Each structure stands twice: as C-alpha cells, then as structure tokens.
Amino acid sequence: MVRSEPGQVVRPGDIMVIKGRGMPRPHNQRPGDLFLSLDVEFPDGIPPGSQEKLLELLGGRPVPKESPQAEMTQRLSKRQAADLKELVKRQEQGAQGGHSSHGGGQQNVQCAQQ
User: Fold this and answer.
1) pTM over 0.70
2) Torsion angle of alpha carbons 100, 103, 106, 108, nearest 10°?
3) How far apart are CA 53 and CA 43, in angstroms?
C-alpha cells in the first residue's frame, strides 16, 4: 500500500519514488529505490448530482450549456489519437533535424474535421 501527501494531485505519467524500497542488492547492500510509474484512469463521466460537489471542491463555475463561445468537441478513437501522436512525433523529429518533410524548415500542421 502506498500513499501520497494530502492534497497532492496525481496525473497520468507521473513517476514517484519510495526511497530504499526497491530491489534487494547482493552482499547485504541497502536496497535500491522503488520507482512508480502511475497509470491513472479517469471515469467516463460524472453523474449530474456530483458535478456541483466537484465544482465546489475544485473551485470554478459551471459553463453555460448554450455559450456562443463554446465549441463542441468530439473524442478521437484510440486509433485516430495514436495516428495523430505519431504524425506530431515525426514532425518534431524532422524539425529537430533541421529539415522538415514539407520543405523550407517550416512546420505545417493540418486540421482535419470529421
């Protein structure tokens, strides 16, 4: 069982350490450190009755449902998200190498609508 400091927010991909609780070492040496790579799962949704409690706890205010400035989002499929991440990674690698697959040393980003 592990615990964190009260009030600490844990995010996906965070890495934490527990000093001296890692793998044992030979010849009676002190154990190494135990590193924890956190994979945080969030709920798919929040029940309507809990939203107000969550806003109160975290601070903030509800967004009006019919706000003219608010754009409606759509979640990408896992495949679409993986493809997009791979595209960004290739573009970053091209920019770091001093060249871009699009020429001229510029990064070109295209937005796609579904």
Assistant:
1) no
2) -80
3) 16
SS3 assignment, position 16: strand
User: Token match 């030979």: residue?
Assistant: 26
User: Cα–Cα distances in Å, from 58 out to 17, 46, 62, 71?
Assistant: 27, 14, 12, 23
Residues 11-37: pLDDT tens digits?
A: 888 898 999 888 888 888 888 899 988
**DSSP element (H, E) containing 15:** strand 15-18
The pLDDT value given to residue 84: 92
Q: Where are the domains of the chain?
A: 10-41
Listed in sequence order, the DSSP H helices in 1-114 are: 48-58, 78-96
The encoded tokens of residue 11 equal: 């995010």
Sign of CA dihedral 101, 102, 105, 111: negative
Rg (CA), the chain: 22
Tokens of 81: 């998200």
pLDDT of residue 112: 52
Query: How many whole angstroms separate alpha carbon 87 and alpha carbon 26?
Result: 45
